[in-house]
Specification:
Strand 3 (116-121), helix 5 (126-133) and strand 4 (137-142) form a beta-alpha-beta unit. The chain folds into 2 domains: 5-43 and 286-394, Alpha-Beta Complex (Aspartate Aminotransferase, domain 1), CATH 3.90.1150.10; 48-281, Type I PLP-dependent aspartate aminotransferase-like (Major domain) (Aspartate Aminotransferase, domain 2, 3-Layer(aba) Sandwich). The strands form 3 sheets. It has a 7-stranded mixed sheet, with helices on both faces. A 3-stranded antiparallel sheet has the order 9-12-11, with helices on one face. A two-stranded parallel ribbon has the order 1-10. It is built from 13 helices and 12 strands. With 396 residues, the protein is of the alpha/beta class. Helix 2 (46-57) runs antiparallel to helix 9 and helix 4 crosses helix 8 (254-264). The protein binds 4'-deoxy-4'-aminopyridoxal-5'-phosphate. Residues 38, 98-100, 124, 170, 174, 202, 204, 232, 234, 240, 245 line the site of 4'-deoxy-4'-aminopyridoxal-5'-phosphate.
Amino acid sequence: MQLAKRMGRLGTETAFEVAALVGKLRLQGKDIITFGLGEPNFDTPMNIKKACIKALNDNQTHYTTSNGILPLRQAIAKTAGAFRGMEYDADEVVVAPGAKPILFNAIMALVDEGDEVIYPNPGYPIYESMANFVGAKSIALPLWEKNGFSFDVEVLKKLVNKKTKMIVLNSPQNPTGGVLSKKDLEEIAKLAKEFNVWILTDEVYGKILYDDKFVSIASLPGMKERTIVVDGFSKTYAMTGWRLGYGLMPKELAPFIAKLETNANSCTNAFVQHAGVEAINGDQSEAEKMVVEFKKRRDLIVKLLNEIKGFKCQMPKGAFYAFPNVTEACKNLGLKDSKALQAFLLDKAGIAVLSRTYFGPKNVGENDEYIRLSYVSSEDDINKGVARMKKAIEGK
Ligand code: PMP
């Protein structure tokens, strides 16, 4: 089949392939515990589901404007703005079927062929994929374990130049759980202003932050006008399958992001948008409980992982991922890399994890091996699953 050339440049999120494999193995009767996809095991809170059913019964089943219904954009502007200590207007909000389309649209709308896009590595694979897809040059900014997987601003300074069109940030970060400090954000902001660069900041884990106070780069002086904030409902409200997200951006940019929505989706599902209004304006206690629960799970999984011979795991500050260094374990088992360890764990322990390779190519000078475990499963599964890993790895 003769596909368009650009398809050769499109990457993907291969975590979904592991999810499909887990499903297949389970159908064959295999007992698999998965730490694969980043999908909370909680149910969507009942008040949100009820609002959706009501919207359906009220026949909210028609097209909406491409940028989203006004009550939802107003609710987002108010609360997402307040969360960041900022003021946004409904015209600075675009609703989309998930956070992902905002990433897609922002890169489509702002990045030209030949431009440079800096993205964190290891990182969520869609940034690199999209930058390459539009014909830009994707430039990896290495994140190092020794820096708590934060940005090394000195390295960033060397990468930014007049061809840089965009810097992608993701804090708290997938897959490392790293968080950018206010000081780092200030340095990044200074560079962005100096080189006239767009910031695309993926803040889908902004509320899943355990100790620090959340800071958005958009709230720093002179940054709102050059920043697109990406956020959504998938993680905060356990709504991954609903497909609801949004972007906060300059008023002049919003119609173009919405125009891409008109071309691709016409609009976001109408009754889902009404449920979104309830998610934001309604009782927040379920969402808050989830974060308390994630914190317990984080403490548990990190403790258990550090008890496995050859594993070394930092305490992630946010999101719901543990990212242990497994170099010694690979060596002890005679395995070439984290990909081989992933296969070993699935085969010998019935445990699904994702290897470092799912989050971008290794950086120059990166000699260690890592895996990502998403601790969205129950404490029971974490106890059982990590015990099974330990037994398979230590052979006891
Ligand atoms: N950004 C990051 C960093 C993510 O981890 C994910 C989901 N895994 C998304 C965006 C996509 O979110 P959504 O489901 O709202 O499209």
